[in-house]
Amino acid sequence: MTNAETLAAYARRAVPRYTSYPTAPHFREDFAPATYADWLRRADPSRPVSLYLHVPFCRQVCAYCGCNMKLAASYAPVAAYAEALHAEIELVAALLPRGMKAIHLAWGGGTPTALAPDDLAALMDRLRRHFTFLPEAELSIESDPRTLTPEMAARIGALGFTRASFGVQEFDPKVQQAINRIQPPAMVARAVEALRHAGVAHINFDLIYGLPHQTEETLLATIATAAAMRPDRVALFGYAHVPWMARRQRLIDEAALPAAAARARQSESAAEALAHHGYQAIGLDHFALPGDSMAVAARQGTLRRNFQGYTTDPAETLIGFGATAIGRSPFGHVQNLAETGAWSRAVFGATLPVGKGVALSPHDRLRGQVIERIMCDSQVNTDAVARSLGAPEAWCPEELETLDAMAADGLLARQGPAITLTPEGRKLARVVAAVFDSYLAAGKARHSVAV
Fold this sequence. Notes:
Structural class: alpha/beta
Distance between the termini: 19 Å
Shape: globular
CATH class of the largest domain: Alpha Beta
CATH architecture of the largest domain: Alpha-Beta Horseshoe
Strand content: 15-25%
Radius of gyration: 21 Å
Number of strands: 19
Number of domains: 2
CATH superfamily of the largest domain: tm_1862 like domain
Mean pLDDT: 94
CATH topology of the largest domain: pyruvate-formate lyase- activating enzyme
């Protein structure tokens, strides 16, 4: 095969996104809530934590979405969900040491702004009763420009949010029709302006390539329109067509999806266009203006990765609230029950609503850090990571042989424990990271393609 064919073959590999290690399919369903309770009690009050609140409701359904979400046909289930969030915050806070500080807060979904402004404010008040937000803390929230009201925009600013994210995806009308997300550029611009006027200093956009009927031309036009609104960060994701997991994706005509080669060209052209508009490439799929905190973290080598993707969040403990929310601690990972009814019943029954989790072994910590540095820095020294953890290396001969084969194929350079991805290899960071995933071969989960 030619080098181009070899790289294309790597790009077609189905591998995890590595937002945790072990990845979520390897969390154990027999994980005991009592174990998570013990982790919470053992949290170090001298170290700030990160908080995540999941709101799985949307007012409109997007066909491409693979998230855990529900259509909010009326407000009653959203209001009931908010009450359960209050109860979960109290339940968790009662287990934590007093005086916990928070360095990062993220509201995700679904659409958190499906909450009424007063309900959002009440939940923020509840959090502030139990956590002291540090002056430098980032407070972020996801929103939908189709449903963001002026009242909610003003309240988000008044509550001290510092960052808001919008799922732009693609501005082309035909693509928007195919994915059931109609939002003209003027609509998005109004939402951005409303939040900036309210004092929200930083704006993120999500864009997607590989969508039905999408072409290089439509994607580049979208990027030019989006760049004119000057978001601080742009996440450029490849559409993951997983209809066996996300049933709503069955609404998408697979014949309208771009072929692998066209999808790869979209990814490359989009990255070049974002660079042309002044955005620094970060990790696998993020771009930021040079002065943004994520760009600074990437340059300083302090970029992190968690289940939200690339982040500047330095906390080792992330506490998740809400159905399907994922949390982590120095001891392991935990995920709440996904079904909102079961989650709510557990909370009101004074039981941590744990669905599954996994305790980390020294082996997991070592491999997890190596994978995170590959994903964040495009390089890693495995000896240095092992020394930092006081752990012996545990690489199999087959893994080293695979790395050497990747080096021969142009994905990376390896000098003993030092691994550096090439420009071509950076696009395939997930494939390189997968070499260190000791769970992958035995797993039954299906994953999206690397590019």
